[in-house]
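Page 37, continued from 36.
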């Protein structure tokens, strides 16, 4: 609606001067009010990056790690007021879960420097929980990106090939990485959380709520870990 107004502003201004149309005086004032139009443009500038991000998250090819990357790189708009900034920060915190952050972290082609101390704490706790005690050294070695973790990064053409190579030597962490990297963002809460701001459900958008979406993501991950028979790491062919 906002975009439509800006794109057709000159037409609306002309119509507001046409006496053959019954337009409310207040509407006429707003259409010709430069300050009002500036506020509308600011709202568009604020919402567009988030809308574009959500559209990417809805693609079947986007995993939770990809979505985490988008959110980590999305900066608060300069025009955010204090309330908007606070709301934005809180939403990002709920979106960047341990699963999403670990998926991002286990992609060696991502920029790990954007991860905060708190992000790394969540990732470490997740890996300690998921890796058997005597295999935690695999995580610590990957964290340094030394040895084969470094050399295979140059050899592999993508993250799935990378972990498929790594699994021959470090099957435990590779298994977790490949499972996490296959969790689609569209089945998690990453883009659904914004639907909860207004209407969770409608005839057109039957969205899951935040709690149930989070549970689905963890169920999906756990199910794949338990599925020992499915060792096909090809993203297009693997059945979930």
């Amino acid at each position: 609606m906002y975009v439509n107004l800006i794109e057709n502003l000159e037409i609306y201004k002309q119509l507001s001067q046409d006496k053959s149309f019954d337009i409310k005086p207040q509407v006429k004032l707003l259409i010709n009010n430069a300050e009002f139009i500036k506020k509308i443009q600011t709202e568009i500038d604020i919402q567009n990056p988030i809308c574009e991000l959500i559209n990417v998250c809805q693609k079947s090819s986007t995993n939770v790690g990809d979505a985490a990357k988008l959110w980590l790189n999305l900066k608060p708009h300069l025009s955010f007021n204090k309330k908007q900034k606070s709301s934005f920060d809180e939403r990002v915190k709920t979106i960047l879960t341990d699963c999403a952050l670990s998926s991002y972290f286990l992609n060696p082609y991502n920029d790990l420097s954007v991860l905060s101390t708190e992000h790394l704490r969540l990732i470490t706790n997740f890996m300690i929980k998921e890796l058997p005690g005597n295999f935690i050294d695999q995580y610590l070695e990957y964290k340094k990106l030394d040895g084969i973790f470094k050399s295979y990064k140059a050899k592999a053409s993508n993250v799935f090939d990378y972990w498929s190579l790594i699994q021959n030597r470090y099957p435990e962490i590779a298994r977790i990485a490949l499972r996490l990297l296959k969790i689609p963002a569209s089945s998690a809460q990453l883009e659904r959380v914004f639907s909860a701001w207004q209407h969770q459900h409608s005839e057109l958008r039957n969205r899951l709520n935040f709690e149930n979406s989070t549970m689905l993501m963890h169920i999906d991950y756990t199910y794949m870990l338990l599925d020992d028979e499915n060792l096909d790491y090809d993203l297009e062919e693997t059945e979930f």
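Residues 47 and 186 are 20 Å apart (CA to CA). Flag for discussion at group meeting. Residues 188-194, 196-206, 231-240 have pLDDT under 50 and may be disordered.
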